[in-house]
Amino acid sequence: MSDTLLTHEPLLRGAVFAFVLLAMALWEVAASRRPQHVPRRKRWPGNLLIVALDTLAVRLVFPLAAVGSALIAVEQGWGLFNLVAAPVWLAVLASVVVLDLAIYFQHRLFHAVPWLWRLHRMHHADLEFDVTTGLRFHPLEIMISMGIKLAVVALLGAPALAVLLFEVVLNATSMFNHGNVRLPARFDRLLRLLVVTPDMHRVHHSIVRRETDSNFGFNLPWWDRLFGTYRDQPAAGHLGMTIGIEDFREVRDLRLDRMLIQPFLSPHRQVKRNHL
Hints:
Helix content: 55-70%
Number of domains: 1
Keywords: Membrane, Transmembrane, Transmembrane helix
Organism: Halomonas flagellata
InterPro entries: Fatty_acid_hydroxylase, Sterol_Desaturase_Related
Pfam families: FA_hydroxylase
Oligomer: single chain
Strand content: under 5%
Subcellular location: Membrane
């Protein structure tokens, strides 16, 4: 079982990734929520190349990744579910929910701590909001995130199946809730009781800081309501809101090289340059 999971994990994750990316891209063409003023040809190359670099970095630094760490935890008897007898279904379900809660708090941490925000702001600096925005994370952020995830997996003793399920679902929902897609308002209200919807998460990408610091959930929507960070709609409306952050608003900042060095740039110098 363990060898099978490790062998087929990249193939499974890759297949789901490709399917969801293609499905969301087609949905965006068929039923877009907002008009895009920066064309895909200027944004997508950097956004897609960064996910390739992120994948390579994780595989080099963490060869076994999260699923492998879960298998090691089982062998060593680490973590709650390797010490306390529990039905497999309960261990899997609880692990997925706790991992999602950990990602919620991690997301809040990356907004609250200045040097972590410098890494995370690259995600927010996209000038549009679509499926590829959900893939746009700095490699250093991805590696820190993986380190946190490995620690949570070890403490939980999360089953490898739960970790694989969580990784696949998180990746798919990240692309979904960053989609520039239109959902009927009533359906959106019902759906966001179970999962973070594009309209819910788009608020988080507003240029208005109080809106940026809301709706931190990527997968399950409950945490924002429970911990007081939920915001129903952007003040300017979804068609009137501005996407991004104030400091990086030039199209050239969407290039891969600029994305990689962005955490090391001074926002004040960048703002001055933008107004030349």
